[in-house]
Amino acid sequence: MELEAPQVSTWEGYVDWRNKPALRGRHGGMLAASFVLVAEILENLAFLANASNLVLYLRQYMHMSPSKSANNVTNFMGTAFLLALLGGFLSDAFFTTYRVYLISAVIEFLGLIVLTIQARDPSLKPPKCDLDTPCQEVNGSKAAMLFIGLYLVALGVGGIKGSLPAHGGEQFDETTPSGRKQRSTFFNYFVFCLSCGALIAVTFVVWIEDNKGWQWGFAISTISIFVSIPVFLAGSPTYKNKIPSGSPLTTILKVLIAALLNSCTYKNTSSAVVNMTSSPSNPHSGRTESQQETVKASTTTETPTSNLKFLNKAVTNKPRYSSLECTVQQVEDVKVVLKMLPIFACTIILNCCLAQLSTFSVEQAATMDTKLGSLKVPPSSLPVFPVVFIMILAPIYDHIIIPYTRKATKSEMGITHLQRIGFGLVLSIVAMAVAAIVEIKRKRVATQSGLLDDPTKPLPITFLWIAFQYLFLGSADLFTLAGLLEFFFTEAPIRMRSLATSLSWASLAMGYYLSSVIVSIVNSVTGNGTHNKPWLSGANFNHYHLEKFYWLMCVLSGLNFLHYLYWATKYKYRGTGTTN
């Protein structure tokens, strides 16, 4: 009977939705991850249906100025993605990713109900403008209701983005090659499902909002996030949920503080031996199942490695305070996190380029001929191009490109995470160069047709020229986002995975913020002097020096890629099945 011990068939460090040990063969796998993918379609639909067109709602119905509307949308989007860090932290430290998703979905649902009620009831919005009634910007309790609804949605979205990718990634057995390949497929299709939700959002829901009313657009988003909850719950019997192992930030801070304080003390070498072999430093003593899994999943060392040597003082010298005693494993975990941060930083410029798709690229298209036969395409629907391209490329990448590269390189990964991210960064450089060339052509057409000073008439050039920069940036997004999600999940210590994966979304938020900063700096520098006009300001878009701005972004992206190469070539993978 002893041979039938349950430990043989359980996932160590994981429980099911009833908080009982998760069983191999019953919990986890692609079936469990498929519920996550469907939930992501519904969640991203609910989020982007409003975010993609929100600037119009704030301007037309809340009577905000164009600049204030744009700033509020940027703040909303940036806050939502930054709050993914909170969702990831809570998933690792106190709750499971399963619970964080459910709590966050309910919060987003409540926020959308508030926005739907406000959009439906005229008394909760500013009065309509007409010849007799000047426009009055939303204020007081009406503004409070608007921002409460928006930031409840942002809080919910952040929690979902911080928990859902990690929850799906946790369903696979990373100790087997087939499990790691399935996990790679999951992250590819996670981005595919993001695009599916976005496609419905920027076509069907945007059309509903423009033609039937915003209350219907908000209502569709509300229904979508509500439906995602039972869809996600339907997979409960199949999920395995990682047991939270305490605050990862506490571990990071403890190691950093211990290394700093211990560097000021000088102890004999025997204290280092005692410190590494005594109970507090024993990798297996007093560990939860999740912590034991960490030791198995990573390279366990009896002595700290030689890289980032200053952190080794956290264990090689006896700490001044017992609460600052660190294990070698904790020191190595913090080293991994610190080594990933430069990779994270190098993707911010890429996301800054992506931010141009929702600003200047849309304004470019608005000056051009937007007809496709008898159909007139609204410029706000231009994101359809990268979304459709990602949906086409993702399956091709997973089912054709990856199998071919696996055979060609005779490696499990085929294309490593860092190679994939690097390829995305190269595509962003090409995209900015293409955008500059297209803008030069657009202005040449405006000059030749005598419409340079008349921005009211569409130029005799099809908006499909803009599609090229959308396609390149859409491809860059696919390679980089999927690569980042899998890189952070695979490389991060198990107890920090949700938080690390959330860095992908934080990079997106910082890209949006950095875009606004760069535009402000460019206008400030180029507008100096009495006869100089800022590159990116004025009433006539045809007078903008947008091509110069795009060339500047191309140069910055090139320099960023060189910076990335430096860190990527130095990085050594810790995950199983990957090589540099």
UniProtKB/TrEMBL annotation:
Annotated region described as Disordered, given as residue ranges: 277-301
Membrane topology: Multi-pass membrane protein
InterPro entries named in the record: MFS_trans_sf, POT_fam
Example GO biological process: transmembrane transport
Keyword check for Chaperone: no
Coiled coil: none
Superkingdom in the source lineage: Eukaryota
TM stretches of this protein: 31-58, 70-90, 96-117, 186-208, 214-235, 341-362, 382-400, 421-440, 460-489, 510-529, 549-567
Keywords linked to the UniProt accession: Membrane, Transmembrane, Transmembrane helix
Cellular compartment(s): Membrane
GO molecular function (one): transmembrane transporter activity
Signal peptide: none
CDD domains in the record: MFS_NPF4
Any Pfam family: PTR2
Family under the similarity heading: Belongs to the major facilitator superfamily. Proton-dependent oligopeptide transporter (POT/PTR) (TC 2.A.17) family.
The protein, known as: Uncharacterized protein
Species: Glycine max
